[in-house]
Amino acid sequence: MTSKQKTARLLRQFGLMQPVDYFRFLFLRRKNRAINQDFRKRYPDVVLPPDYMMYESFKLDYERYYIHGQLTAEWLAQLVVPHIDLNGASVLDWGCGPARIVRHLKNLIPEATYYGTDYNPDTIAWCSNTFNDIYFHSNDLMPGLVYEKEMFDLVYGISIFTHLSEEAHHAWLRELTRVLKPGGLLLLTMHGAGFREKLTDPEAAVFDSGQLVIRGRVREGHRTFAAFHPEAWVRGWVKELEIVQFIPGSYDEQDVYILKLRLGTGHLSEDLSTDYTEYTDGQSDISV
Question: Selecting from 3.40.50.720, 2.60.40.1180, 3.40.1280.10, 3.40.50.150, what CATH number does the domain 69-280 have?
Answer without folding.
Answer: 3.40.50.150
